[in-house]
């Protein structure tokens, strides 16, 4: 049974239901192509169909569900194995980008990385996590921009879109925030020093570990983390 009082840490009941369904999709309770029936979900959660309908619209915006004419909500596959594969692929590609980007970083680029790191630290200390994580991606875009491999950059952006809001489950996870802070401090120094191999290694390790944390967060029985509201920034 589910009641609104069970979800006091989330902004709305539809957002809570969307998060619950998303966990089921990632855990492969509903495989790719399966129909999500409003009435059945509403009955299981002991809620009316209205919040379930809104939750399915949210999941459609996130890319986890597609709303098919005369069929209704249908699952778009995003299993834990898919998440792992996407992060492993991103680890390889983003490290490759760094191989050509770091040697081409200008002094202006390095100054920008320092400034963005200062912003990340200030936002973390101010407990403004959404803004911090958005700034983290701006940092990585700045780091990657000098790369001559435009195809790889486009592919990374495409893979981020594939995951869409899934990584937002980590926004309230202290272990991930600690991981991110450590990564951005270390990668800033390595980039400023021109240590290409260190930057490659740090980026690859960070992506792999982030993928592991996302998968862990969606395992059955994992501690609930407040889901992001629709429209929150995609940062990972």
Automatic annotation (TrEMBL):
GO terms for molecular function: DNA binding; DNA-binding transcription factor activity. Residues 11-78 form the HTH gntR-type domain. Keywords: DNA-binding, Transcription, Transcription regulation. Pfam families: FCD, GntR. The keyword Secreted does not apply. InterPro entries: GntR_C, TF_FadR/GntR_C, Tscrpt_reg_HTH_GntR, WH-like_DNA-bd_sf, WH_DNA-bd_sf. CDD domains: WHTH_GntR. The keyword Transcription applies. This is GntR family transcriptional regulator. It comes from Dactylosporangium sucinum. The lineage of its organism: Bacteria, Bacillati, Actinomycetota, Actinomycetes, Micromonosporales.
